[in-house]
Amino acid sequence: xxxxxxxxxxxxxxxxxxxxxxxxxxxxxxxxxxxxxxxxxxxxxxxxxxxxxxxxxxxxxxxxxxxxxxxxxxxxxxxxxxxxxxxxxxxxxxxxxxxxxxxxxxxxxxxxxxxxxxxxxxxxxxxxxxxxxxxxxxxxxxxxxxxxxxxxxxxxxxxxxxxxxxxxxxxxxxxxxxxxxxxxxxxxxxxxxxxxxxxxxxxxxxxxxxxxxxxxxxxxxxxxxxxxxxxxxxxxxxxxxxxxxxxxxxxxxxxxxxxxxxxxxxxxxxxxxxxxxxxxxxxxxxxxxxxxxxxxxxxxxxxxxxxxxxxxxxxxxxxxxxxxxxxxxxxxxxxxxxxxxxxxxxxxxxxxxxxxxxxxxxxxxxxxxxxxxxxxxxxxxxxxxxxxxxxxxxxxxxxxxxxxxxxxxxxxxxxxxxxxxxxxxxxxxxxxxxxxxxxxxxxxxxxxxxxxxxxxxxxxxxxxxxxxxxxxxxxxxxxxxxxxxxxxxxxxxxxxxxxxxxxxxxxxxxxxxxxxxxxxxxxxxxxxxxxxxxx
Length: 535
Hints:
The protein is α+β, with helices and mostly antiparallel strands. It has 13 helices and 25 strands.
């Protein structure tokens, strides 16, 4: 994996197709958002003050440069002032300023060149406050802002303006005031503002929304309630949440089939969007993640699909759920498990897939690796070699260690080796068994058995999923299944995260501002025809 900022992967619900390792992150500490300007050039930064924690260094992120966790030195912060240093290339950056009214402002020296900086202290990220704010807000008829907490962003509120398609994280400045920067990854200068309005009882009824110079007041709509649930699949116990519209039931429902890695229940704007359509939403912690038992690292696609199907079975028993209208929304890796659910059970009445591959797992992971080589600045020949080496290692995953390590030795000296993650697999680690179990999986036979309505989104420049080949395989599956309600939408100018992009490169994500056009709007009209109005 590259050392680039991981926000793109986080935002897209566990987008990478390769297995990801669950790790405990550093303590959050105190966050400061701002920028420094030297020689007329401004650079946004995020300072993470962890000085109150032992053995947790304070660091700086520079999102526009895809750099994060840059160590600070000589960090000192008092009620009246602050100073710190960090290495910016060959030169040392020295910051020293005055602290007043939640800001730290002052001078910066980059070598011998002077400049200025501003930092604004963010409030602690409070998940309870974020849950109270979660939902949909109507600015005007046809203009709605959806928002909600997203676990993969540390539980921060994530928003999307469904009219402008502007999206991003909301950083708390207080329990009711939130801000966002000029792009998804750059938090300052503040370009978006949200101030939540409460009634006499303290319930949030609306918000004051600012987008640049435009100021609007929005009413909170689509009231809902959240219920913690437990689902059992054999020896695995899954914990999660069921979010239900407050309107009269029984409600149609959607189960989330997560992407790769240890994904947990809170998925930001997606929950709010579906609830606003009148659907109940079931989102479970993946096995081995969050509060769920089991181990996704030892599981195959069929095992994971079985977990989500256990959720369907639970929903089917509830009086407030319409058992005839329970479907699945699968993201990335969920593009393999969602069709498995529909092929295995008649209780699944519709399938929606976002950025899912219709190609064998091994080919998809090799496609992803080849694109990391290209994005790393290497040649097309290098990318092709890395693809071929990856395919060889995937095929050798079940082999004995001597045979596998011999192949590794051949490829480890190549200039592209650092991008090929199978080269780092160990004899006793979980990586090879996971690969041996999952790399051979081919979704073709499963897709040919799916008879329920399908809506499948592909991104033109998806570097994690071979979209062009997937489109061909999906057409073959549509013909083989005889399914006349099988829609594939090829979204232009976007990659795996579905933000607007002309290349699909991970670097684009940080400076992107909008979701690609045609995903949420097409899904909304499709749901109305195939789920909501289908009694």
